Structure formats: structure tokens, C-alpha cells
Write a sequence for this structure.
């Protein structure tokens, strides 16, 4: 009798501590429970197939205590939430935020500490976070480790880059989970600063595919006052564990209750299009804190930038990169400086002639002779131009042409220096009517010992976005931590790089043709990317016959990237003279929109191909982009996304018959068709190629 009662009691304890919650579609199921030691656990299934096996949750503190064991449940609260909201800029005019939520209140025996775990289950995945209420026995605390587990159900195909505290600028590896090993990564990849911390660690977002066709993505959302999460990998058990980026003394996060962690996210579907089409990351961030957003505008721009990457000109006035006479400021001009008044006016004329919104100028300000590699604190002041760059004259000229200038703030990762000068830099922008700036964080961080992905730097990037908002200005960060949807809260954080961009093709082994088919499943889930597409002179030996570097693409694919790589800030990155040689292809860049009313994900397979159609927010025009990896591809798509009972002129920019990313990249053809929503369109993509289409209603 005593044994029977004991079993019954154990079952009773398990039942009151176990709870399930489903997605609105009922296809995803999350089970929560407390293990024997009072440790919170969860598991996830999709259509009755295991995705995440039982996995533990918990936080370990610097003082030796933990928020991971000896918990009991104080109660569970469930709600259903369903709303529609309008982003300021985006891939669609309206976003649905629909989920079922379960909030588990926990108490820890012996400490009286409270911790809540909040689960949200969407049709496309699961999100959860730790919440630390205000309480007597937990006020200030320091996180030593976060041990959030993701125990995967199989040895999935995985698209990954090494766990690195300072850089995401790697080409992706495609292997099984069991084959992940950063020792096998080619580190001769052009990255200036690498801080790989383990043989068996990767970055999130981590994109995977199971053998039975289930797509799984592990990421995070709303990283605020917290370090970036990487993932430690056990290649034998397929178990992943959160790995927080430390600060200079090894601590992970300094917090005070009440507070929350970022959301840990698991997207899952048997259709890859559901992953790239998901707005779950954005939905998990707070609504906009900017009341008047009328000044936040999409932009298409050109700029003095690519010419430095290809070696035509230099960022620095003296062309020395050796601090030549830097103390006396008696710099000797090299004659190769790109950011001159005359050259900038040439770009302004080009932008005005072809209908662009803005011009970016890099290398305009003093300091570039001694900016990199020396861990130097006082580098740029962000207000003093070189002698050959007349700020007032240039801005008056741009205003007369209807062009906005885009400021450039390279910090050289001397963040303390940037924050000291930030308000003066913003006042200068305000004086001359700059609407936006591109910031950069190349090199080792100052304060010394901090990492790009640590709590200190996350707080800095977010602070800069907030400070720019105070001045009603937009910011586009490069070499920052990767976005996690914070642009919903501060939509003036218009774009970021935070991945391996197009620039690497100019001076390194470049980006393989599959690179752009992976980024929408990884980096772009967190926010728009300033990838800088539109390179028409693809082989670098055009500029120097000794060079072997090239963009791993066809010209038509460069056009398609304006659709597949979403950003409300898009650069026509090549030189003006290169566009003038191919005016028929350049027309697509001139025509393409950058802010969208609707987006349709027509075909998708990570690492292989992607086809996207988008409708301009300001017109009835549609645009389509299709890209492939190193393999040629034929496809036929339905045009049922077009408005019914309407004829469209389809202008198709496609790879030519002999096009090939390596052998013949600048081989394209343009044709026009009359189509309707009942039409089908055949796509013929060369190896490393693409197709871009504009659809204009016929009156």
C-alpha cells in the first residue's frame, strides 16, 4: 500500500509541474516540466516529430549560486495573443503577431528567489526567455553562465560559421552537426580580427535541415543589455548549449531586477519558405519607442567606397597608413585620396541624374593615416575634414541637386572615443542636413579587452541608435553585433552589415556562390543587411591584370540581390562609370523599390536557391529576384501574386546563354513579356547566376 501511494504521489508531483502548450495551428507542441532536482526542462515536437529532446534551462551566477535547480512551480498562466501592426519600413505593410503564451512562475527552495520562464509558441516556432522579478532576495547579480540547452533529435545538415566573439564575417560551412570543427575552417579569409573561442562552437542564427526534411533554426531576439549568444556543440550527441560572450574580466552580464534575458528562438517547418518569411524575431521585440517616425525614410544610394576596395583610391589623404606627420598634421597628399570635393560632386551629379536619394563618402575626415591595428584611442574626431574636402561647399551642391549626403563614422572600434565625440558629430550632421550615417567598428575594442559581441558593446550599438533618434537621424552599423529585431523598437536603426558582405570579393578569396542563398536563413532573420550589391565589373583583373579576385556571381544575380537581400537602405555599390557602360542592366537598379507593401517567398532551399517577389509600397509595381548557388538551375513559377484582371509588362533581366559566374559573368540578356496573374514564368539561372524581373501594370 505504501509503495502504491508513493507512485501515486510521484505521478501527482510530475503532473503539477508538467505543462504543454501548442501553436495556434496545433502543429508545434512544447512540453515544460521540472526534473527530479527541480531543474526546468522543455521539449519541442513538430507534427508529432521530435525537434528538441528534453533540454534543461538555467542561469549560474558569479557568487556560486544558481537559478537552475531546486525550483518548484508557483503557478502557470496561459494567454492567446493576436494582433496586426504596421512597421515603419519593411518587407510588408502589415505584420501579424499571433501566438499562445505560457508563463511559468518558479520559486527556489532555500533562497526564496523567484524566476519566471515565458514561452511563446507561434505557427513557425517557439520562443522563451528568463524573467527575473523585483524581489528582496535578488537585486543586483552577475551572470557567470547561461546554460540553455537545445538537444537536437538528429545529425542534421547544418549551415554554420565559427563561434567568434568579434566577427561574423565568415563564409558558411555546410556539414553535418557531427562534423562541426572550427579547426577545419580556412582562416585565410580576409577577416581582420578573429576571436574563435572553441573547436566546437558556432554562431547563431544556426540553420539546419533534418534527414526527413524538417528545417530548424536556432537564434535569439531582443538582445538588450545582454551579450550575444553563441552555441557550444557536442558533435557526438547533437546537443547545443548557450554560450554567452564574456567581458574583459570574464563576466557575462551585469543585471538588476526586474529584468529579462533575450528570447531564445527555435523556428521549425517542413517548408523552407516559412523560415525566411517568418516575422517572429521582429514580433518578439518591443513596439517602436519613436512617436513621430515621419523622418525615417528608405534610401537608395551611391558612394565613394568601392573605389577604395579595388585600389583605385585611398581612404587616407596621405596614402601612407603609417601616421605620416600625424602629430604636426602636416600631411603630404598622395594624389589618390578618394574623398575630394571634386570627386564627391561627380557622385552627386550621377545620383541626381539617375534618381538616387543619397551619396555616402568614406575617408572624408582626418585620422585615416593612423587608424587601424595599433589599439589607439584618439583616432577620429568625426568633425574635421581633410584639406581637399569642403563640407559646406559639398552640402550646398548636394542640396541644389536634391541629394542627401550620408555621413560616415568609422570608429576603428575606439568606442570610448566615439561616445565622447558623438553629440558633436551629430550636431555637425544636423547643421548640414544629413539624414543618416554609416558607422564602422573595425579592429579591437576600446575599452580594451571588450569584445564586439559582449554586453558592453551591445549596449553601445543600441545607445547609438537611441541617440541618433534624439536627433531624428538614421544609422547603419558595420562590424557590429548581428541584429535581433531591435529595429522594430528603434526603426531609425535602418540597417547593419554584421556578416560577410560584398566587399570581401574585392580583396580576399571572396564569398562562394551559395553565400547569398544562406544569408536570408541566418543573418537577415534579425534585420536588414547593408550587403552593398550591384557590382557590374565582376573580375578585379579589370583594374589590375595581376589580380585574381572576383565577385562570385553573374551580373544578373547582382540585380536579383536587391530583392532577395532585404534592406530599406540599398547601395548601388559599383563605380558610376561601370554603370554607364551597362545602362540597360542599370535600369533595374534605378527602378527597384526598397520599401515593400507585400513579399512572397516563392522558392527556397538554404545553400541552393531562393526566389522572392515583392510589391512596392508606393505603387502597383512588383519586382522578383531569383538566385542560385554554383549550380545552374531551371524553374517555372506562377505569377498568381500579381493583381487579377490586370496586364503587366514584365522586364526580365536574366543570365545569357553562355553566362557563368567564373567563366563569363557579364553575359546577360533583357527581354519583355506581357503577363497576368494566370501566367507562368520560366526562369533560367546560370551557375552562380540569377534573374531579376520588374512587373509594371499596363494602363
Amino acid at each position: 500500500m505504501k509503495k502504491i501511494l508513493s507512485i501515486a504521489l510521484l505521478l501527482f508531483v510530475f503532473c503539477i509541474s508538467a505543462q504543454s502548450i501548442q501553436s495556434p495551428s496545433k502543429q508545434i507542441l512544447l512540453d515544460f516540466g521540472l526534473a527530479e532536482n527541480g531543474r526546468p526542462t522543455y521539449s519541442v515536437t513538430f507534427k508529432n516529430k521530435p525537434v528538441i529532446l528534453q533540454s534543461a534551462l538555467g542561469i549560474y551566477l558569479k557568487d556560486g549560486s544558481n537559478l537552475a535547480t531546486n525550483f518548484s512551480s508557483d503557478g502557470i498562466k496561459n494567454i492567446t495573443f493576436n494582433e496586426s501592426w504596421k512597421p515603419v519600413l519593411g518587407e510588408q505593410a502589415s505584420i501579424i503577431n499571433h501566438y499562445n503564451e505560457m508563463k511559468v512562475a518558479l520559486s527556489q527552495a532555500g533562497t526564496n528567489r523567484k524566476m519566471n520562464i515565458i514561452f511563446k509558441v507561434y505557427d513557425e516556432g517557439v520562443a522563451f526567455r528568463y524573467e527575473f522579478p523585483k524581489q528582496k532576495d535578488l537585486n543586483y547579480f552577475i551572470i557567470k553562465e547561461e546554460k540553455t540547452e537545445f538537444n537536437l533529435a538528429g545529425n542534421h545538415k547544418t549551415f554554420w560559421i565559427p563561434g567568434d566573439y568579434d566577427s561574423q564575417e565568415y563564409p558558411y560551412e555546410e556539414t553535418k552537426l557531427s562534423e562541426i570543427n572550427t579547426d577545419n575552417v580556412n582562416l585565410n579569409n580576409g577577416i581582420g580580427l578573429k576571436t574563435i573561442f572553441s573547436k566546437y562552437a558556432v554562431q547563431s542564427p544556426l540553420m539546419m535541415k533534418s534527414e526527413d526534411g524538417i528545417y530548424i533554426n536556432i537564434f535569439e531576439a531582443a538582445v538588450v543589455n545582454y551579450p550575444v549568444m553563441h552555441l557550444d556543440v557536442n558533435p557526438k550527441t547533437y546537443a547545443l548549449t548557450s554560450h554567452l560572450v564574456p567581458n574583459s574580466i570574464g563576466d557575462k552580464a551585469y543585471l538588476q531586477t526586474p529584468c529579462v534575458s533575450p528570447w531564445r528562438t527555435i523556428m521549425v517547418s517542413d517548408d523552407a519558405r516559412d523560415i525566411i518569411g517568418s516575422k517572429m524575431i521582429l514580433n518578439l521585440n518591443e513596439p517602436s519607442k519613436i512617436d513621430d517616425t515621419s523622418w525615417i525614410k528608405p534610401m537608395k544610394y551611391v558612394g565613394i567606397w568601392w573605389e577604395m576596395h579595388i585600389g583605385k583610391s585611398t581612404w587616407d589623404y596621405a596614402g601612407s597608413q603609417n601616421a605620416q606627420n600625424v602629430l604636426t598634421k602636416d600631411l603630404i597628399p598622395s594624389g589618390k585620396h578618394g574623398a575630394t570635393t571634386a570627386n564627391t560632386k561627380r557622385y552627386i551629379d550621377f545620383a541626381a541624374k539617375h534618381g538616387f536619394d543619397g551619396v555616402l563618402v568614406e575617408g572624408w575626415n582626418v585620422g585615416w593615416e593612423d587608424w587601424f591595428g595599433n589599439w589607439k584611442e584618439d583616432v577620429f574626431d568625426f568633425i574635421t575634414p581633410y584639406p581637399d574636402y569642403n563640407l559646406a561647399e559639398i552640402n550646398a551642391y548636394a542640396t541644389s541637386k536634391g541629394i542627401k549626403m550620408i555621413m560616415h563614422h568609422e570608429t576603428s572600434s575606439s568606442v570610448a572615443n566615439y561616445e565622447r565625440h558623438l553629440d558633436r558629430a551629430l550636431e555637425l550632421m544636423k547643421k548640414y542636413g544629413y539624414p543618416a550615417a554609416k558607422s564602422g567598428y573595425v579592429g579591437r575594442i576600446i575599452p580594451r579587452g571588450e569584445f564586439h559581441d559582449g554586453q558592453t558593446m551591445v549596449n553601445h550599438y543600441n545607445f547609438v541608435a537611441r541617440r541618433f533618434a534624439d536627433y531624428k537621424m538614421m544609422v547603419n552599423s558595420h562590424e557590429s553585433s548581428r541584429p535581433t529585431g531591435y529595429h522594430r523598437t528603434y526603426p531609425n536603426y535602418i540597417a547593419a552589415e554584421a556578416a560577410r558582405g560584398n566587399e570581401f570579393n574585392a580583396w580576399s578569396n571572396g564569398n562562394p556562390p551559395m553565400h547569398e542563398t544562406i544569408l536570408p536563413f541566418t543573418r537577415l532573420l534579425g534585420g536588414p543587411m547593408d550587403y552593398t550589391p550591384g557590382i557590374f565589373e565582376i573580375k578585379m583583373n579589370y583594374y589590375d591584370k595581376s589580380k585574381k579576385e572576383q565577385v562570385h556571381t553573374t551580373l544578373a544575380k547582382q540585380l536579383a540581390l536587391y530583392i532577395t537581400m532585404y534592406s530599406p537602405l540599398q547601395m548601388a555599390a559599383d563605380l558610376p562609370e561601370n554603370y554607364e557602360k551597362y545602362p540597360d542592366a542599370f535600369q533595374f537598379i534605378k527602378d527597384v523599390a526598397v520599401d515593400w507593401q507585400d513579399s512572397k517567398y516563392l522558392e527556397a532551399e538554404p545553400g541552393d536557391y531562393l526566389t522572392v517577389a515583392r510589391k512596392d509600397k508606393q505603387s502597383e509595381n512588383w519586382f522578383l529576384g531569383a538566385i542560385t548557388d554554383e549550380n545552374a538551375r531551371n524553374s517555372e513559377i506562377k505569377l498568381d501574386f500579381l493583381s487579377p484582371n490586370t496586364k503587366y509588362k514584365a522586364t526580365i533581366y536574366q543570365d545569357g546563354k553562355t553566362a557563368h559566374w567564373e567563366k563569363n559573368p557579364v553575359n546577360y540578356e533583357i527581354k519583355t513579356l506581357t503577363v497576368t496573374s494566370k501566367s507562368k514564368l520560366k526562369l533560367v539561372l546560370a551557375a552562380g547566376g540569377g534573374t531579376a524581373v520588374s512587373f509594371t501594370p499596363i494602363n
In short: Residues 411 and 441 are 6 Å apart (CA to CA). The chain is about 15% helix and 35% strand. The mean pLDDT is 95.
